[in-house]
Design goal:
alpha+beta; Naphthalene 1,2-dioxygenase Alpha Subunit, Chain A, domain 1; Rieske Iron-sulfur Protein; seven-stranded antiparallel sheet; five-stranded antiparallel sheet; 12 helices; about 30% helix; binds FE2/S2 (inorganic) cluster; binds fe (ii) ion
Length: about 400
């Protein structure tokens, strides 16, 4: 089925629920052990078995538009260097020199023809090949062709770049993406523009991420900012471990289906397992906020990178609107979601409560926590089958 047809079906499905005054609910309330949010052993398992084995959405294609554009970052303590080669292909490497392991490029971005190590100037090209050894005649024989940068499995789809931090992973990106990428492709992110970015500190990554999968809190916690008139009922569409959150758009009911705009059809929140949320907005021209969540230094800490991405470069007026909206989103997430989450984290760490509850109306949390458990429990060689069956 083509992606637009799927999006139309979702919108139609949403409208049928709106007409009935009902919405889909899970069979039962779901419990997650409270210790999952603070236990050190559990947290290490999540890092080793989820973050180090699942594809992570580390960049937007628009950050690496031209050959030679690169981005260096540290993702769950792994130094990563991504670069678009002359052939147009994005590659990711462990950002580590093959001589003695120095970090090649400091975190940041730019355009480079070559990457030269700050320690002894070994040099690599955009495809990670070792092309220069300083004072080579003194160093001794070395086969350059076996000493390129260590490449990480990478996949560019829908204007988004996924990287697996484990260099020898055999996980199949298609199985992991479960068809979700074809829907995301409808945004056309490859041609969008990164307008601004900031980093926020939050509670345990799952406390933070739970909030991206729940509309139940929107009219309550966010009533003073944007939530007062928003629905609290989410309709979820899972694709493998990824979930789109929607709610009915009554304006669509007044139009013929072939007049439903792609923009409307893509509304809502698109979560990308295990750590990203893409939320659609209208202000200042068409824009989305891509939030990338990472575990912090301890179980009770996380880091969120908020990326404000626009369909077209803004004019003056749109720029001001986008700035105002991005500033508002800082307040919403920092002072409402994460302030609540940081206090919630401390409360849970008293150990006074055995489980947290996800209601029949909070199916996003049911599926997310089930997927995290399932992945933790699956050995490397069985991961592909997990997604096939998922
Ligand atoms: S560690 Fe990079 S050149 Fe020596
Ligand atoms: Fe929220």
């Amino acid at each position: 089925m083509n992606a637009r047809t799927t999006l139309v079906e979702m919108a139609r499905h949403n409208l049928s629920y709106a007409a009935s005054g009902e919405f889909p609910r899970e069979d039962d309330i779901f419990r997650v052990p409270a210790s999952n949010y603070y236990d050190e052993g559990r947290w290490k398992l999540e890092i080793d078995r989820v973050f180090k084995r699942m594809p992570l959405l580390l960049a937007l294609s628009c950050e690496l538009k031209a050959p030679g554009d690169y981005k260096a970052m540290t993702a769950v303590d792994v130094p990563v260097l991504m670069c678009r080669g002359k052939d147009g292909k994005v590659r990711a490497f462990v950002n580590m020199c093959r001589h003695r392991g120095a970090v090649l490029m400091p975190d940041g971005s730019g355009n480079a023809n070559r990457f030269s190590c700050p320690y002894h100037a070994w040099t690599y090209d955009q495809a990670g090949a070792l092309v220069g050894v300083y004072a080579a005649e003194d160093f001794g024989d070395i086969d350059k062709s076996c000493n390129g940068l260590v490449e990480l499995p990478t996949c560019e789809r829908a204007g988004l770049i996924w990287v697996i931090l484990k260099h020898d992973s055999t996980l199949d990106f298609d199985r992991f993406l479960s068809g979700y990428d074809a829907l995301l492709e409808q945004f056309g992110f490859a041609d969008w523009t990164l307008f601004d970015r900031r980093t926020l500190e939050g509670p345990n990554w799952k406390i933070a991420y739970d909030g991206y999968m729940d509309l139940y809190h929107i009219p309550i916690l966010h009533r003073a900012t944007f939530g007062a008139d928003m629905p609290n009922r989410a309709i979820y569409y899972p694709f493998g471990p990824h979930q789109r959150l929607t709610f009915p758009d009554p304006s669509l009911a007044e139009k013929a289906e072939d007049e439903w705009s792609t923009t409307h059809l893509l509304d809502g929140v698109w979560t990308v397992f295990p750590h990203v949320s893409i939320a659609s907005f209208g202000g200042g021209g068409r824009s989305v906020m891509v939030s990338q969540l990472f575990p912090g230094k301890r179980p009770e800490e996380s880091i969120t990178v908020q990326n404000y991405v626009m369909q077209t470069p803004p004019n003056e007026e749109q720029r001001a609107e986008a700035q105002a909206q991005f500033a508002m989103l800082e307040v919403v997430v920092r002072d409402e979601d994460y302030a609540t989450g940081i206090a919630q984290q401390k409360a849970l760490m008293t150990g006074a409560m055995p489980d947290v509850l996800f209601g029949r109306n909070e199916g996003g949390g049911h599926r997310f926590h089930t997927w995290v458990d399932r992945i933790i429990d699956t050995d490397d060689e069985d991961l592909n089958a997990l997604f096939e069956s998922g």
